Amino acid sequence: MPNTKSAERRMRNSERKNLHNRSVTSNLRRVEKEFRAIVAAGKKDEAAKLLPGVHSAYDKAVKFGVVKRPTANRKKSRLAIALVAKPAEKPAKAAKK
């Protein structure tokens, strides 16, 4: 328990910020998961329309300080690459000798 008024205030503020950060993080996970599911389903046109929204969500998370800028840039880059990359084909099994 806090011993001073300022410690009480900081505790309230940190709890409020924690809830906000958790909701932003949860939203990021949801948006990324939906995007990746659409890409995996092969719906490239639909995914291309969603990509700016995903980028915007990451930029807003950076603005709030939930995610650091390099992390957001890396995620955005990998999502863009996933959109244009060809689906990975399974390599054929080598014949037994």
Q: TL;DR of this structure?
A:
The chain has 3 helices and no strands. The chain has a single domain (5-84), classed as Methane Monooxygenase Hydroxylase, Chain G, domain 1 (Up-down Bundle), CATH 1.20.58.
Structural class category? mainly alpha
Tell me the helix content: over 70%
Radius of gyration in whole Å, from Cα? 20 Å
Question: Which spans have pLDDT < 50 for at least 5 consecutive residues?
Answer: none
CATH topology, by name, is Methane Monooxygenase Hydroxylase, Chain G, domain 1
Number of strands: 0
CATH class assignment: Mainly Alpha
| Oligomeric state as shown | single chain
Task: Report how far the terminal alpha carbons are from each other.
Answer: 71 Å
| Whole-number mean pLDDT | 90
* Overall geometry: elongated
SSE order = HHH
At CATH level 2, the architecture is Up-down Bundle
> Beta-strand level of the residues, as a percent range?
under 5%
CATH superfamily: Ribosomal protein S20
